[in-house]
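Q: Two folds, back to back.
A: First:
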Amino acid sequence: MPEENRPSSNIGSLRLIRNRVIQGLFVVLPFFITYVVVKWLYDAFYSIALSPIAWGLRWFWELEGNDSPGVKILLGLCALGLVLWVLFVAGMFFRSRLHQFLDWFLNSVPGVSNIYSAVSNVFNALSSSTDQQNKFKRVVLVQFPHPGMKAPAFVTGECTDVDTGKKILSVYVPTTPVPTSGYMLLVEQDDVIELNWDLEETLQAIVSGGITVPETVTYSATPTINISTKP
């Protein structure tokens, strides 16, 4: 090899090593972050619920000082079963008068109401996501934030213009990289384009900032009217 070609060859080798390390980081990080989050949730659940219940069962059954593996497994299983039973019983009071009273009471306490209402709204949205699933499966393209640019949006509802009788779509335009924040727009049915991406592909493209965008898109398609089957 000529002497003058060695520096460029070394630089190319260093770039290859750097790229491989970065690619390896992208492979390892999702697994590592998932492990950290799951471990944190388990540790929090164990310290808040399982450990105190297991300690109470050990005291109730007079098993202090008995640290055999069988006893630990038995206490852990009993503690988990008791937690599941409590959750099952609590589920029986979902939307009951007792639940409504506690909800009203916590929403009336200054300071606590702000935290409780925010957390409650999140879990209410999650619990109703199954009933509303079909409303978010339709993905369209709308002109946003100004004509000449288009953004993916999820159709969330329909209404009718009182003056023209045209169908107006209520769409949600999520933002990158956090799709839980976005804009609610009212758009004429004739102005939207049916997107050839499904819900999962659209969310992945939004969260990744377009890195995982699908290979094809119905960007220049002609808007079509979706005829509703509702009476």
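A: Second:
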Amino acid sequence: MKFFILLLLLPVFSVLHGQSDSNEMPLYPDGIPNYRNVPDEEWVERRDNGFDFIHDTSIPTLTAFLPPNPNGQAVVICPGGGYAGTSFIKEGIHVAKSLNADSITAFVLKYRIPQDAHQVNKSLAPLQDAQQALRYVRSQAANYRLDPERIGILGFSAGGHLAATAATHFQKMADSQEKDTTSVRPDFVILLYPVISMTDELTHMGSRNNLLGEKPSASDIMLFSTEKNVSADSPPAFLMHAADDKSVPVGNSLAYYEACLAQGVEVEMHLYPKGGHGFGMNNSSTADFWMDRLKNWLKTFPEMKD
């Protein structure tokens, strides 16, 4: 069995470690919070679309993709996967390399998948990881030639829910034992066909069940419905969604957009009539390239300070 798992892992490792401009590192070199000391059960599935899908991550990592001439801007990328796994290549590595082409530094987060067997409180584990990634990038800004005030977070699908949670829950540390006071507030948030709400009307039920359990409390539904937690201090947002998305209704993006408007938060949204769910960077239903819209939006932020 271990040999089989190793064979499955090889495609991901070859992509990560066969590139001179990337570096995978443990997210918590000094010990993972909210962690049960049980065997790591991570495994990788090769799907029909040719992209690897990583299941059951319990030991999170952060992989840095560094452009030759960084412009000072950085993005932490949270791939989607319904809180059951992560589409690490399609919604992680490919996006990082596209951002690198515009001199933007990227960090792909392989966050923990919520599991009672691996975490004391599974609902908090992904947010702890997102906050730690933002904390690390901001604290190491000088080493990466970054502006600590131009560090954002991006997420697809359930990874979009994680990014939105990081953008609306930065006032309080998800790890109550964390002593580092480095800000975990993202300077901007990018939400791509995101799960936003945990309400019955809007949620992607698989994501909700995996994160909160099959019978979540009303308070947990409210806490993790990010459209309910947007405040005037929430960062500027960019949203993209397809209207015919049958997995995560477009109402999720609309709800976050309306919440930003109500709170006076700068927000830009791009909606496509077709595309479905999970198309990554390539929506084959249109000649328009949403990554161009995103890169134009990112250019509205100020240049790196001296």
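Q: And?
A: Residues 2-298 form a domain with the Rossmann fold fold (CATH 3.40.50.1820).
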